[in-house]
Input
Amino acid sequence: MTKSATDVMQDIVFSAIIDAIGALKAASKGVPNTLLRDLNAVHANTTLADLPPELQAAIATNVRSAFTRLLKEGYSVSPAGSAPPRSPSPPPRPVSRDAQRHRRPPAPGPSDPGKPRGPRPNRPPKPRG
Output
């Protein structure tokens, strides 16, 4: 029986997390403060280059094994550039002369957007209440 894509991905992610924790432990060389420092250094904007070399190697290994596992399970994995091109959208329909006549004129506004519009007209204040 084949596994669903969700089950395969959960197995892959779980395995990657366990391997990453092991790599962080190896990078800290058994020193608890170093392990905590490395864990606290990981945040949403962390790049791969910011991580310890052991963790970088574990991530690279897990990515390769994830693609291999997906292929073994029967899922197709292809590079981004090899996706079949989408069919071009149909050309726009020509606008009939009748439709051109019924178009609204552009909204009034300043002819030059960078130019000040001039003074505002004096209006009585709105009553409050």
